[in-house]
Write a structure and sequence with these properties.
The complex is a heterodimer of chains A (252) and B (110).
Chain A: H1 2-17, H2 31-38, H3 52-63, E1 74-79, H4 82-103, H5 112-124, H6 131-141, E2 153-160, H7 167-184, E3 188-192, H8 202-208, E4 214-223, E5 235-238, E6 240-244, E7 247-251
Antiparallel strand pairs in A: 1-2, 2-4, 3-4, 6-7
Helix pairs in contact in A: 3-7, 4-6
Chain B: H1 6-10, E1 21-22, E2 25-28, H2 38-42, E3 48-51, E4 58-61, H3 74-78, E5 84-88, E6 91-92, E7 101-105
Antiparallel strand pairs in B: 1-6, 2-5, 3-4
The chains are: A alpha+beta (252), B alpha+beta (110).
Chain lengths: 252, 110
């Protein structure tokens, strides 16, 4: 009986001790806010493998993400095999070399024709061929950027396309839950959207279990960071339209 | 209330034309920089390098019209000496014109 009482008292005492679940004007960041604000994408990992139980714990954070209609429209594939991760990196590098050959009109032997169909493709896939991923294709092809940045563990997030309402958003929320949990536990993470390339590889799709209704959406590289890359940074303010008392203001 | 004109929307900017956009830029305080190279290791755009020997070993940004800097500021988070910081954020014109953004600011706790 006394044990139960003690546990309850501790549970009551702990939120106040870490300044959670309340707000005062100008108060310092609480632990959750700190993890959110200090999380940076990590692109250099130690060789040391992440303990299996820690990965399992991070996956739990994903399992309890909010979803539309509680449809939980996702599937996880965890890859901790160094050889397999290297093979995946090699495959994507090869694919990026092919893309670069066809899409880089400055160096493509197809010249002006390459420029034309690249412009056309950018119109069809404006997100995938945004100038930033365009640059990343070159970097991966040249080997300057590794697919999973040599992380020892990779969580691949698949979406179930039959999910309620907006399954892609649900997958995003789920992934962010895992990423924040991982950072709060001292790990580093990086979102890897380039796993999209595996949709061109029939053998990879079979190996990773990507078949209808599943679709490979994102990869999350997971590992112990080299140095301390987390920290708060400066970022652009966002223009916010604020309606109140029948008037509109613009705030930043 | 269109945010982008129809003409702008119809033009896809190309990554190699300086008239179509600006790359991110960083400023490096060479008095604080000790040339440890941590920023070089983590830069996703591979647009930093370290040059010089001994005390003159410092980080620099590559001299290209379009370095792949996406102004992520990871270098500034990595640098515990506070020597490096994004000064210009990347932006493309026309179809990819950046809308409704303000100046750079650290997190504010109001």
């Amino acid at each position: 009986m006394t044990d139960v009482m003690e546990v309850e008292e501790n549970a009551k005492a702990s939120p106040a001790a870490v300044d959670m679940y309340e707000w005062r004007e100008g108060m310092p960041w609480n632990p959750v806010e700190r993890v959110i604000l200090e999380r940076r994408s990590v692109r250099k990992y130690k060789d040391k493998q992440v303990p299996e139980r820690l990965v399992r714990r991070i996956l739990e954070a994903g399992r309890f993400a909010p979803t539309a209609g509680n449809s939980q429209s996702w599937k996880f594939v965890v890859v901790r095999d160094r050889d397999m991760i290297d093979a995946m990196q090699k495959y994507v590098q090869l694919r990026c070399k092919v893309f670069k050959f066809f899409l880089n009109w400055q160096k493509s032997p197809l010249g002006k024709l390459a420029w034309f169909y690249t412009q056309l493709s950018a119109r069809v896939m404006p997100n995938l061929l945004h100038p930033i991923p365009f640059g990343a294709i070159s970097l991966i092809a040249e080997g300057k950027l590794k697919l999973f940045h040599d992380a020892p563990t990779v969580i691949l997030v698949l979406v179930d396309r039959r999910g309620a309402a907006k399954p892609l958003v649900d997958v995003g929320i789920c992934g962010q839950n895992m990423v924040l949990a991982a950072h709060s536990l001292g790990l580093g993470t990086c979102w890897v959207g380039f796993v999209e390339v595996f949709k061109f590889g029939t053998r990879w799709k079979k190996k990773l279990g990507v078949g209808w209704p599943y679709e490979l959406i994102e990869g999350i590289a997971l590992g112990y960071p080299v140095g301390n890359p987390d920290g708060m940074i400066e970022r652009e303010l966002q223009e916010i339209e604020w309606w109140e008392d029948g008037r509109k203001r613009t705030v930043f | 209330m269109a945010y982008i004109s129809f003409r702008e929307r119809m033009i896809i900017p190309t990554y190699d034309n300086p008239e179509h956009g600006t790359s991110g830029r960083v400023v490096i305080d060479h008095e604080k920089c000790n040339g440890c190279g941590n920023c070089v290791i983590i830069c996703p755009g591979a647009c930093l390098y370290v040059a010089g020997v001994g005390k003159d070993k410092k980080a620099y940004m590559i001299d290209a019209p379009f370095p792949d800097c996406m102004s992520c500021n990871d270098c500034s988070a990595m640098c515990k000496r506070g020597a490096i910081k994004v000064s210009v954020t990347y932006g493309y014109d026309y179809f990819y014109k950046i809308l409704h953004r303000g100046e750079l600011a650290p997190p504010r706790n109001f």
